[in-house]
Amino acid sequence: MAIWIPYVGLPILDYILPVDHENISEGRIKVVEKDRRFLIPLYMTFVMDLAILIYAIQGVGSGRIGQTTFEFFLYVICSAQTGALNAVVGHELIHRRHIIHKICGSISYAKMMYGHFFIQHIRSHHKKVATPEDPSTSRLGESLYQFYWRAIPAGYVEVFKYEQARLSLEGCTKWWQHVIYNRLITFNLAQGAWLGIVYLLFGQRALVFHICQSALVTLMFEAVNYLEHYGLLRKKLDPTNPDSAYESVKIIHSWNAPQVGTSYLFFKLQRHSDHHANAYKPYQILDSFVESPMLPYGYSVSLILCVFPYIWKRAVDPVAITTNKGEKITEEQQKDQNRTVLCTLLAVSLFLTWVQFFYIGFNTSSFKQF
């Protein structure tokens, strides 16, 4: 059910439930912002994901679960769902001011072997967003798979260059200082040491499981990055000057989605325009702007659409192009988008429902043939 619920049940709920553009009133913002109860679901998710990962690693290592190849990868996929959700929690925590929250947010990424992300996100993405200089901004016409191939390696390179420049400014002149104090290197060494501990404690099969699970979580997380700014561009203040600065980040430079289901599940990450305008804001007080470009039916549906490049481009490209021009899509384009999304959602839902209830079923008999 860990596959059917997020990729069938949740998209259907997002499709049929009313949208949510309600914002916190000005008089309550300070009270809600300081309410510590909103930290509870963040840390519940954080602990739940760690518990599920350790349970799965121990189970695979001991041979209690994941004994066949099919079951092994089924557990990889299922455990990756909470891992991806915890990555969203990590994004929320690294933006908090308190050092404890930042550390826990960093752990969320280090657990998926992606510890350098918080440096790239804070130091680069929020400054360069919606420009060609930002590796994490997907280009118009770029497929999800092309984005993976370009953005993931570019993120490592960018963080390495940033760390080298930072150390030079801090007066580090020795080569060994640029190795020991480079956080990209130390993070990856620490992550490698953690994988070594997993191997020593739980064995080779558990190590392979952890690597596969981390890779899948990274791909799922980067898929969210792909759709957050796809095709949206900030204009240069002086178009005739190649060295001109870009306009400031506006609410039209991020894709929003007002669907209730994924909005609450992803801690209002879908109110992404306000997040980029006010990165310090905790999730509970983020505002929704109806003027922002809207994804077709929320992150749950959009994550399915972007897996199919032709369908994704057909549904989203017209909106991205018209948004960059300061215009709106036509009524005919809106109808075509709705048809495309609905047909894709029905096809994927029927296929995954067949897989869940008829191919896999509620027993392990189908595992044994693999």
Notes on the structure:
- The longest helix has 30 residues, at 331-360.
- The two termini are 20 Å apart.
- The mean pLDDT is 91.
- The protein has 16 helices and no strands.
- By secondary structure, the protein is mainly α.
- It has 2 domains: 1-34 and 237-360, no CATH class; 39-153 and 187-229, no CATH class.
- The chain is globular and about 60 Å long.
- It is a multi-pass membrane protein.
- It comes from Halteria grandinella.
- One of its GO terms (biological process) is lipid metabolic process.
Shape: globular
Q: Helices and strands, in N-to-C order?
A: HHHHHHHHHHHHHHHH
Mean pLDDT: 91
Radius of gyration: 21 Å
Count the domains.
2
* Alpha-carbon distance between the two ends: 20 Å
Helix/strand class: mainly alpha
Helix content: 55-70%
Uncertain runs are none
**What's the number of helices?**
16
Main β sheet profile: none
Please provide the count of β strands: 0
Q: State which percent range the strand residues make up.
A: under 5%
